[in-house]
Amino acid sequence: MAKHVGIVACSAEGAALCYRTLCAEAPSLMGEHMHPEVSMHTHPLGEYMVHIRSGDWEGVAGLMINSAHKLAQIGAGFAVCPDNTIHQAFDLVEKETPIPWLHIADGVGKEAQARGFRKLGITGTKYLMTGPVYPETLKKYNISCDIPYEDEREKIDTIIFKELVNGLFPESSRLYFNEVIEKLKGRGCDAVVLGCTEIPLIVDPEDCPLPTLDSTRLLARAALRKAIEE
After folding, report:
1. What b/e string do you get for 131-141 counting C-beta neighbours within 10 Å, with b at 16 or more?
2. Which pLDDT belongs to residue 27?
3. What is the C-alpha to C-alpha distance for residues 114 and 14, in angstroms, rounded to an integer?
4. Which terminus of the chain has a lower count of CB atoms within 10 Å, N or C?
């Protein structure tokens, strides 16, 4: 019997990609049309943003914990959160969570280590790019990281919150990501983390200047493995 997966969502597009990936890839492991039981709970992104913009990570953690309790009450065996930025509250969440969690950056770190990458470029919201989530996690895998320049971080953040979370994926923004990633390559990065769960919806691995580490799909695959493990 597969474990019941709980998704603590934050933004709709990234959470939907995580859900779709888990369900679409499960049949190869579980049989035709099969996937683990999956439940999702999300507070509005706007409620999260009030806390994120003010640097109130306890407030962020409170929303995540509230979602976890609701998922636990309906039988979820563990939780995942397809949002990189709010993992800055992860340590606070772990202290009070009713069910275990998988950490999104751990999945990225394991994949990067397996593929032999040594220095990762980090893309995501400005809070994620300048925050501790990836630098702290990647240390465990002896992998370093770098981030875009400040003006690039501001533009990427604007693209995420004005376009991607709203389901808008203009070609001009896709090309801008490639420009920024090309610069990270020039600074010694050998792969790039798509560290906002919507970025995989706009960056095309086929023409990206660096190999991509898709945090959203890697999390979904980790959740699938966890759900069906003995």
Report:
1. bebbbebbeeb
2. 97
3. 24
4. C
Across the range 40-68, mean pLDDT stands at 98
E-strand stretches of the chain: 5-9, 38-42, 78-80, 119-123, 144-146, 191-194, 212-214
Confidence tier at 76 by pLDDT (50, 70, 90): very high
Amino acid at 5: V
Could you say which architecture CATH assigns to the domain 5-103+218-228? 3-Layer(aba) Sandwich (3.40)
pLDDT digit string (tens) for 113-166?
999 999 999 999 999 999 999 999 999 999 999 999 999 999 999 999 999 999
Residue 204 to residues 14, 21, 194, 226: CA-CA distances in angstroms? Answer: 16, 17, 11, 28
Sequence spans of domains, the chain: 5-103+218-228, 104-214
Find all residues with CB under 8 Å of 136, minimum gap 6, and list them.
Answer: none
Which CATH number applies to 104-214? 3.40.50.1860
Region 193-217 average pLDDT: 97
